[in-house]
């Protein structure tokens, strides 16, 4: 599996090396209150909807007064940011270099809880606008923490961003706010900031309260760091004295108990029992659900396997633009239609997962009373009633005569193998016109189908001029199955921009449609919207500006897991401004609860030789493929698609894959913990009872090793070396262990402490000692 | 600068896909078979605009072998091998001669070539049917299937 990197979260952290900067005391006066305050908060960035709630909750939010106390450089004076003059091109701070670090430090008139920042802009787009910036804040200039990481749109609309203002749920005060531009909209251009407004609470009563809390918090954390340090270094008396005097606890009493059992008593058996109990009580759950997924692709059938002609009928052929859906109750996948490179298909297949067999239900659905051959249609399945619905198709321009431009709508009954022709034209029933590349999902409980987006096919004859008519996109429709009625929920509009090649999934518990990405003429959309089907409310989950999310995609496929509250996206074509449109596949997970994207699979290889070699190991990059998800068994299935080869434009794929996403299980974690504990016991044993230690290694330690894992096996084999002591292989001694100050500390005590630190990392953060070490906070300059 | 074999009717010429001979990565999807203006013999491929996502410019500037055009080498972004060059300042001789307007060349021996087919895969793609550079991508197709 070498050669493909498991993706990490794409958020790039910039850490500039500080160089010298000019430091001048500000002579600027605080601007007059109200001078440039706009009537209302102009346009609140869409991501700040939670911010509005904060405003309502806290009446004390007001515009905060500040002065610019430091700046990195300037070609336009920093004082210009006090006033909002969008029509004046000189009314801005501009750096005189784009070399980092460039920054402005704002000093607030009074310490305050700073909740949001507003950036005003020039009346037109400007190359110097900040595409990326970070904001830091704190009580002193030297101790600032990150409050926001984001960017401005390159337009004239002022933008407001919420700032982080809480630590562990408690507001903290700031005196200094630092704005650090990282990138301008024009590469190699200097950074400009036109106008800044800070909002927050500077009511002294409230701030004083936070100051007290903040000071206590810092004091408490400092003492906990000392406690951790004292205990690790064996300064038992100092530890006892300090904890008695301050009555601050280092950790949850349960973990102190673990420390006593393991580090002080060296009772490894009790330690193992303790860990087993902790696992059984769910102590590791928080750690486990924070772990990243790993992806595992399996080819369901041999790719390009040469089969005799007699069996070639037994599986569906190459295609793209087909449809698939899954009945999770019977574990059966249904596939219909598609484009094989030359023509549209009309075959209907089922694949039974447990028996691994394809059955051709119909060679030609039109003959069997169903839809004609088609591609770029959509399909959805009701696993309760065993019904499949299909709607829409693509028509070649030469085929678009008025009588053909009707949107036929069909239903297939799985149990009776019968097609029902619901209507010849949904538009006549108040439903969508003939569309392709739309999305369709079903709400099984309420027996309603939702159809959103897609391009409306129009007759070329209807427009007299030679020019291609304006592209039409279809809105959001619902179809109530029992009453056989269509309704237009929302036409194509700004709040819910219609599109093609997007994704839409339905969350049956939250009763929300999630709509993501797609294309609209020449615009490639990267927004992420939700539509509550009961309240009909549209919400912007993400406007797509953040670099942390899934890349702007087109023809990506999405699925949803209602139990785990996760959305999965398998990318198709990605649109990257810097690079050629490439067919590169990646797999993303969106955590609905925590509003967080992560990339769990990515393969950026494009070389033909590479994919020739890898085609049996993982799917070659593609688009126009199909992906379905079995949320009961947590497995994805992928079939076919277009590999996008210029040299073979008619080539389509017929490979079939399963994708399993796995996280380390609690059993795995428990075994690893027990292995670590037994390893330590073995090491202690080997120094004074080598023979007994060897037996222990062969039995007890070996039991806890997964011998099929090469890394674990290697680790295990290396353990034998400690039976034959030799100075060069003296454990994983840290360099600090040779420090004369530390020499007195017992070696076993140190190793047990290391083991203890490893074990507590699996417990919830709120229970454990601080993660940081006191020694790491010592400045070396 | 180059002179194509059939200069009045470039449109009838086939479009080639060029792959780097070293790593087989595609370096150009819009190649035209041509001969050098300077010697009328050397066969190479030219293109109207090189693809920044596939090839990179090596900064050093030098003179072409057989004329006074100022050129820079182009290298495959995947493996770094030199695959051709682009003219930054053409010489008088080349400007006066009939040319196809392409300033970017790929050396015959550094690239492998094949015909590019049209979208449906029905026939060889000819220059007169080739979309402009900025529209020549998958996403500008009406339907992806």
UniProtKB/TrEMBL annotation, chain A:
Keyword entries, A-Z: Kelch repeat, Repeat
All copies of domain Attractin/MKLN-like beta-propeller, residue ranges: 408-601
InterPro entries assigned: Beta-prop_ATRN-MKLN-like (IPR056737), CTLH_complex_component (IPR052456), Galactose-bd-like_sf (IPR008979), Kelch-typ_b-propeller (IPR015915), Kelch_1 (IPR006652), LisH (IPR006594), Muskelin_N (IPR010565)
Superkingdom of origin: Eukaryota
Pfam family of the protein (one): Beta-prop_ATRN-LZTR1
SUPFAM superfamilies in the record: Galactose-binding domain-like, Kelch motif
Official protein name in the record: LisH domain-containing protein
One annotated Gene Ontology cellular component of this protein: cytoplasm
Ranges of residues in domain Muskelin N-terminal: 62-253
Gene3D superfamilies: Galactose-binding domain-like, Kelch-type beta propeller
UniProtKB/TrEMBL annotation, chain B:
Similarity comment: Belongs to the FAM72 family.
Natural source organism: Elysia crispata
A UniProt-annotated Pfam family: YPEH2ZP
GO cellular component, one term: cytosol
InterPro entries: YPEH2ZP
Segments passing through the bilayer: none
Protein name, as recorded: Protein FAM72A
């Amino acid at each position: 599996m070498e050669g493909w990197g498991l993706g990490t979260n794409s958020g790039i952290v910039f850490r500039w090396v500080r160089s010298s900067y000019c430091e001048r005391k500000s002579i600027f006066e605080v601007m007059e209150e109200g001078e440039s305050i706009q009537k209302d908060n102009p346009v609140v960035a869409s991501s700040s909807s939670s911010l509005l709630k904060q405003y309502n909750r806290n009446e004390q939010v007001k515009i905060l007064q500040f002065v610019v106390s430091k700046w990195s450089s300037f070609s336009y004076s920093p004082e210009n940011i006090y006033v909002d003059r969008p029509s004046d091109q000189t009314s801005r701070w501009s750096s005189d270099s784009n070399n980092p670090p460039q920054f402005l430090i704002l000093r607030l008139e009074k310490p305050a809880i700073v909740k949001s920042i507003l950036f005003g802009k020039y009346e037109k787009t400007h190359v110097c606008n900040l595409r990326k910036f970070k904001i830091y804040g704190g009580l002193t200039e030297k101790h600032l923490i990150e409050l926001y990481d984001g960017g401005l749109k390159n337009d004239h609309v002022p933008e407001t961003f919420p700032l982080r203002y809480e630590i562990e749920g408690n507001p903290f005060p700031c005196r200094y706010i630092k704005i650090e531009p990282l990138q301008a909209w024009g590469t190699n251009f200097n950074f400009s900031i036109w106008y800044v407004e800070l909002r927050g609470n500077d009511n002294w009563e409230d701030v004083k309260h936070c100051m007290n809390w903040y000071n206590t918090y810092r004091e408490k954390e400092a003492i906990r760091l000392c406690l951790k340090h004292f205990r690790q270094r064996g300064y038992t008396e100092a530890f006892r004295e300090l904890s008695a005097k301050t009555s601050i606890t280092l950790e949850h009493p349960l973990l102190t108990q673990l420390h006593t059992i393991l580090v002080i008593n060296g009772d490894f058996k009790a330690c193992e029992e303790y860990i087993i109990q902790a696992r059984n009580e769910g102590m590791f759950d928080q750690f486990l659900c924070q772990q990243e997924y790993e992806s595992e692709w399996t080819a369901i059938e041999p790719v390009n396997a040469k089969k005799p002609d007699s069996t070639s009928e037994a599986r569906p052929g190459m295609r793209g633009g087909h449809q698939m859906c899954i009945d999770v109750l019977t574990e059966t996948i249904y596939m219909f239609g598609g484009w094989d490179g030359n023509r549209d298909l009309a075959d209907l297949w089922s694949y039974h997962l447990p028996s691994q067999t394809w059955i051709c239900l119909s060679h030609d659905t039109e003959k069997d009373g169903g839809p004609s051959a088609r591609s770029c249609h959509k399909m959805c399945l009701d696993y309760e009633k065993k019904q499949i619905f299909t709607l829409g198709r693509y028509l070649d321009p030469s085929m678009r005569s008025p009588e053909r431009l009707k949107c036929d709508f069909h239903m297939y009954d799985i149990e009776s193998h019968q097609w029902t022709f619901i209507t010849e034209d949904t538009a006549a029933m108040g439903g969508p016109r003939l569309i392709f590349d739309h999305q369709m999902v079903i709400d099984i409980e309420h027996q309603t189908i939702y159809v959103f987006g897609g391009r409306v096919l129009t007759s070329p004859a209807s427009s007299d001029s030679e020019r291609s008519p304006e592209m039409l996109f279809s809105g959001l429709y619902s179809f109530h199955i029992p009453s056989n009625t269509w309704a237009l929920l929302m036409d194509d509009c700004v709040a819910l921009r219609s599109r093609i090649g997007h994704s839409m999934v339905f969350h049956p518990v939250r009763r929300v449609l999630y709509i993501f990405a797609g294309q609209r003429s020449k615009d490639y959309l990267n927004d992420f919207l939700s539509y509550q089907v009961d309240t009909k409310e549209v919400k912007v989950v993400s406007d797509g500006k953040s670099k942390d999310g899934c890349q702007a995609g087109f023809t990506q496929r999405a699925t949803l897991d209602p139990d785990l509250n996760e959305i999965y996206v398998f990318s198709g074509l990605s649109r990257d401004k810097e690079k050629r449109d490439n067919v590169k596949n990646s797999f993303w997970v969106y955590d609905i609860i925590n509003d967080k994207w992560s990339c769990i699979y990515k393969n950026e290889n494009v070389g033909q030789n590479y994919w020739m070699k890898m085609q049996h190991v993982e799917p070659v990059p593609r688009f126009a493929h199909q992906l379905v998800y079995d949320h009961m068994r947590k497995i994805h299935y992928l079939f076919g698609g277009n590999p996008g080869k210029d040299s073979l434009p008619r080539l389509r794929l017929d490979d079939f894959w399963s994708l399993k996403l796995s996280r380390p299980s609690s059993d795995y974690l428990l075994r690893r913990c027990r292995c670590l504990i037994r390893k330590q016991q073995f090491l202690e044993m080997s120094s004074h009872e080598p023979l007994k230690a060897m037996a222990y290694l062969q039995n007890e330690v070996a039991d806890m090793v997964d011998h099929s894992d090469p890394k674990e096996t290697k680790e295990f084999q290396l353990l034998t070396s400690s039976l034959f002591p030799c100075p060069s292989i003296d454990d994983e001694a840290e360099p600090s262990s040779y420090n004369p100050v530390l020499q007195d500390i017992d070696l076993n005590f140190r190793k047990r402490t290391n083991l203890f630190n490893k074990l507590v990392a699996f417990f919830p953060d709120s229970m454990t000692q601080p993660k940081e070490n006191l020694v790491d906070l010592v400045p070396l300059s | 600068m180059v002179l194509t074999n059939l200069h009045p009717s470039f449109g009838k010429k086939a479009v080639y896909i060029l792959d780097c001979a070293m790593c087989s990565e595609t370096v150009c999807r819009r190649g035209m078979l041509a001969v050098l203006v300077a010697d009328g013999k050397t066969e190479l491929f030219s293109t109207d605009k090189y693809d920044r996502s596939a090839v990179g410019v090596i900064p050093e500037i030098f003179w072409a072998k057989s004329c006074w055009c100022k050129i820079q080498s182009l290298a495959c972004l995947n493996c770094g091998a030199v695959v051709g060059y682009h003219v930054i300042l053409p010489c008088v001789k080349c400007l006066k001669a009939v040319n196809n307007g392409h300033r970017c060349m790929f050396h015959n021996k550094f690239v492998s070539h094949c015909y590019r087919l049209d979208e449906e895969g029905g026939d060889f793609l000819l220059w007169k049917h080739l979309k402009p550079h900025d529209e020549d991508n998958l996403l500008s197709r009406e339907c992806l299937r």
